[in-house]
Write a structure and sequence with these properties.
The protein has one domain: Glutamine Phosphoribosylpyrophosphate, subunit 1, domain 1, CATH 3.60.20. About 40% of the residues lie in helices and about 20% in strands. The strands form two sheets. A five-stranded antiparallel beta sheet has the order 8-1-2-9-10. The chain has a five-stranded antiparallel beta sheet with strand order 3-4-5-6-7. A hairpin with a 2-residue loop joins strand 1 and strand 2. The longest helix is centred in the middle third of the chain and has 22 residues. About 40% of the residues are buried. Component of the proteasome core, a large protease complex with broad specificity involved in protein degradation. This is Proteasome subunit alpha. Its main location: cytoplasm. Pfam families: Proteasome (PF00227), Proteasome_A_N (PF10584).
Length: about 260
């Protein structure tokens, strides 16, 4: 009983390490990330790809209000998983830092530089009393001097660089798929196909253009851009991943019967 009470005390204190060196609130923030829908990043020789699961809770909800992919600068995109409000705060911070860098140095901010500025900001909330960690993980992808870069931020404030990664729900299963199918020599279109296939692997191998978001930053233009529904549908159809809606109709009938 005493041990349980002691653990609860460490749970409540973000600035207090447990005897085995853990910060429980940071670990709980990682659990919050796992409850968010999946986001995927893929680095290719031609650029970076960001793909997200934009699950809509109701047909009455406006799709445009579900934001999981964001433009931080002309050459940098960010995908998130976890608490949307926390992600919005970090995205706003990233955009301000990108503007500050442009005004101060007269050049676009580097992807690694921006990532570390964000993680430094996140880390402050792991050792300040009266605050909580950010319950969100970000995938930051962009181009610097013709080189694609792809990073992850963790609720602890630690940055990681990846060739391909996933955050959010089903992270382990998606990462296994990426490890098996990733090829460093693939081009940007192949990267989009891989990201969609990885996302479909945990969604019954079917996706709808309206239920996902895809963005790219290509080496040639170094410009962030999001794919239209028509472009997403073409990729899904080519890979035989397009949701025909038949299962959704069946589910609707079952729900009505229940």
């Amino acid at each position: 009983m005493q041990g349980q009470n002691q653990q609860q005390a460490y749970d409540r204190g973000i600035t207090i390490f447990s005897p085995d060196g853990r910060l429980y609130q940071v670990e709980y923030a990682r659990e919050a990330v796992k409850r968010g829908t999946a986001s995927i990043g893929v680095r290719t020789s031609d650029g970076v790809v960001l793909a997200v699961d934009k699950r809509i809770r109701s047909p009455l909800m406006e799709r445009s209000s579900v934001e999981k992919i964001h433009k931080a600068d002309d050459h940098i995109g960010i995908a998130s998983a976890g608490h949307v409000a926390d992600a919005r705060q970090l995205i706003d911070f990233a955009r301000r830092q990108a503007q500050v860098n442009q005004l101060r140095y007269g050049e676009p901010v580097g992807v690694e530089t921006l990532t570390k500025e964000i993680t430094d900001y996140i880390q402050q909330y792991t050792q300040v009393g009266g605050a909580r960690p950010f319950g969100v993980a970000l995938i930051i992808g962009g181009i610097v001097n013709g080189e694609p870069r792809l990073f992850e931020t963790d609720p602890s404030g630690t940055p990681y660089e990846w060739k391909a990664l996933a955050v959010g729900a089903d992270r382990g299963d998606i990462r296994d798929y990426l490890e098996e199918h990733y090829d460093e020599g693939m081009d940007l279109d192949d990267g989009v196909d891989l990201a969609l296939a990885a996302l479909a692997s945990v969604n019954d191998d079917e996706l709808s253009p309206e239920g996902i978001g895809v963005a790219t930053v290509d080496v040639e233009t170094e410009t962030f851009g999001q794919l239209t529904d028509e472009e997403k549908e073409a990729h899904l159809a080519e890979a035989d991943l397009l949701d025909t809606g038949e299962d959704a109709d069946d589910e609707g009938e079952d729900a009505t019967e229940e």
